[in-house]
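Table S2 (text version). Query chain:
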Amino acid sequence: MIFATSCAGCNQPGPTLCNRCRFSLASASSQLSDTGIVAALPFEGVARQVVHGLKFRNRRGVARHLARLMVRRLRVGRVDLVTWAPTSGARARRRGFDQAELLARAVAAELGVPCRRLLYRSHGVEQTGHSRAERLRGPAFRARTARPDVRVLLVDDVVTTGATLTAARDALLQAGVGSVVCVAAAATPAAGQSVRPAQRRTVAMASAGSRSTSTPRIPTLSAASTLVSTSSKKAVRPATAPSLSKAS
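Corresponding structure-token output:
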């Protein structure tokens, strides 16, 4: 019992991510903010619990699953290098890791490209726990010099206003980086205004006998079991999806 694991999404005993929560994430729509930042998931429901598990409950195993979703969904073209928007040093020391770095390294491993630290966060107020207006000011970053022909993929865990990634992107561009693409694992739907679905994805999750065509946030156990036993190319996208570096 000491070494028992539980799902990061529903906290039920079992694997790091149970079948119900995996299919719930698979049915969620990717997001596109007004600032041009794309995210694999909306920061709500199961996705919120999973990201919180990574950030606050040391559930590092979900980083690879989130990275696979990001690579599968966020087709942004050729990438030469992956980096991340670092959290504050105090927060990283308390947690023992930087969740954005974990995601960036997992994404880089999926893509088969290098992952390097290019950004350093200046001292300032942490974003977590502050209002939207306060977040809009954003943190300050300084960046390492890079070649102008390098195309960098900038990764973060959650985008709310886009201030953090925007500030990080500007720092990279000022340091000489040729182009920067910003992506995140999840995006906060700001009252349905600043974040909108980037593409529609549907996975059938209705329980037996149900006539509803809506998609619940978490499928029933019977529906999840049925999807596992009858999984096909029509129900779930293959794991060996094209990488970002090969997408056009």
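Notes on Table S2: The two ends are 48 Å apart (CA to CA). DSSP finds eight helices and eight strands in the chain.
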